[in-house]
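User: quick one, fold this
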Amino acid sequence: MGGLKVVHHDHDRPVHDPPYQVDDGQLVPVLDLPIRVARLLEGAMGAGAELVEPDPAPGDSLLAVHDPEMIRYFETAHPRWSADGRTGPVVPDSFGPRRGGRRPEPGADVRAEAGYFCRDTATPIIETTWRAAQWAAASAITAARLVTEGTNWAYALCRPPGHHAARGEYSGFCYLNNAALAASGLRAHGRVAILDIDFHHGNGTQELFWEAPDVFYASLHGSPRRHFPFYCGYADERGADSCRGTVLNVPLPDGTDGKRYLGELHDVVARIAEFGASHLVISLGLDIARDDPVGTFELGNDDLYQVGAAAGQLGLPTVITQEGGYDVPGLGDQLRAFLLGLCSS
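Assistant:
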């Protein structure tokens, strides 16, 4: 049962392909392009992975992580949007306050719910978004099952990504938190560590496990002073008082190269080892690579191999969930390098 497996559903797969996102007040091309899936699959297979179909769509297992009212919203948002005569994707035009405001009741105008659950204008919903998000979640949940059954490394090829999605919020191209769903399934088997190496801080994952003494969340990311999600990801955020120290944030400056990144990563890996996790979840963002159009780090493919090798030194059964990474021509080689490094230890 050991070895590397890639979990991916490619039969009648609904394609999440919004026509645009709203960024800096303008309609701009979507960065999370469907072609990313093909490039990532090439990279995983090039690393020697065995292809596995995910289990059926996750259903009620989503409730272990997410607000049932947000799930209901996802199920109905686009049909209601279209029934109201609106064209194009669901994008909020106002945002509800979390303090001092009322939560929209079921049946409220879909615009009110969009602005309550969504925290940005870059995460549109089209007709196929919900089904695509469910398949991404199913891939992560299946990957977690595989490692509990003896697989060493299970790579969930998730699109849309997930680490910005919180219990009752979605943003940053993320609708369901795939890494958190995987970690939730692993908690019955012991302590879990989540290593988030996306260029952006995983604010949703941090929130979901802020008060969890059995889950260690560590993230290396671009400084939130300059980069999304802006409002969290600082080094002094360390978890709730009852389990202080189970969150570790390492914000890094623009231009961080492989040497600096790997030095910080080795310290993080040492902290994970001290935590005593029985399983590891990696939120893999390839937007840390040199040519990514979003990230500002300077890691080459040799560095990505070393990043994978550093994580692999923990020797833990590992789920990898795909997060960002938008350098489409380079994605396959980037993923292959990381996975080969991970499996080399």
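User: anything notable?
Assistant: Residues 224 and 230 are 4 Å apart (CA to CA).
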